[in-house]
Every structure is written in structure tokens, then in C-alpha cells.
Structure prediction request, 192 residues.
Amino acid sequence: MRKLKVKMSMSVDGFVAGPNGENDWIFKTGDEESKAWAVEQSWDAGLTIMGRKSFEMMAPYWPVSTDAFAAPMNEIPKAVFTRKGFKGFDPGLEPSAAAASWANARIFDGDLAEAISELKAGEGKPIVAIGGAGFVRSLVATGLVDEFHLVVHPVVLGAGQSIFSGLAAPLYLKLVDVKIFPGGTIVHIYSR
Prediction:
């Protein structure tokens, strides 16, 4: 059985994006050591999952990026979850090898809990959910998330989008690990 991990950057006051989805603050508050750690951790995924909006934003970017995250983002298989329909990513007439995992992403448009249960029942490395406050909020509501990797950046937004708003009941977690980086970013890893 595979684990489902949520990896999210958040502000000190618990927001994963500004009120209008702004996330530029993530890139202004990291340091080389925290980025290297995050890239290394990215390789632990056997499948990267995200919501449709995040997928549409990332798919054209990563295949042409030279960022350190490009290799894991392009090489790890992907699945996209949608409630509004989605036809997938068209890499163009001459697709690059880097675009293949985006073009071949599995698309789920049915019941989220059923799809996640199906994916978790398989063998392999963990499933890692990234991006999209709404998508991650829906994942949290299923009760199927095994670990939360919360990357807390040294910034206070004052308002924004949360992945934990609207919980029906408190979600009690066990602290598994903490990583502190020179620039002030702190990673909290929790299990259920």
C-alpha cells in the first residue's frame, strides 16, 4: 500500500497562497540549502498528483525549465484531478522527452476518495500531492492523507487561502520531523 503525502509551502500564518492565489512569496523566502533539500525530497515520489488548475499552470513551464526542480517535475509520472473536465496536455507536434510525463498524465474526473483509494492500493513509492489550495482541501476532507510536509516560509500574508479551512472536526497529527534552514524556512513533517 502506498502512502499519500501532501507537500505544501505555507506562510507563518498558515496560508498556502494569497487571497487571489499569489505565491511569489515562496520564491523570495527560500535559500539554497532548503531548495536542495526540497529537490532531493521530490525524488521520493512515485506519482505526483495535483488539481487541474495547478496542472494547467505547470505543464507548459516545467518541460522547458532549467530550474533544479525540472528533472523530478518532468520525470515523475503525474495524475491530474478535475471536476470541470480536462482533455490533458498537448505537447505539440514534436514533444520533448521532458514533456512526456505531462502529456501522459492520468486524468481522474470521478469521485476523489475512490480514485485516491485506488492509487494508494498499488505498489511503489509514495503519492505526493502538490499545488492548489482547493484540491488539497478536498484531499484533506477525504481523510486519506497519511503525511503532511508543511514548508513554513518566514513571511506573514495576513490573508489568503488555507488547506485546512472548513474541517468538519479537528485533525490531530503526530510530529515526525522538523528541518530548519538558514534562511528561516522550517519544514514540519506530520503523520496521521
Summary: The longest helix spans residues 32-42. Strands lie at 4-11, 47-51, 78-81, 106-108, 127-129, 147-153, 174-180, 186-191. Residues 46 and 125 are 4 Å apart (CA to CA).
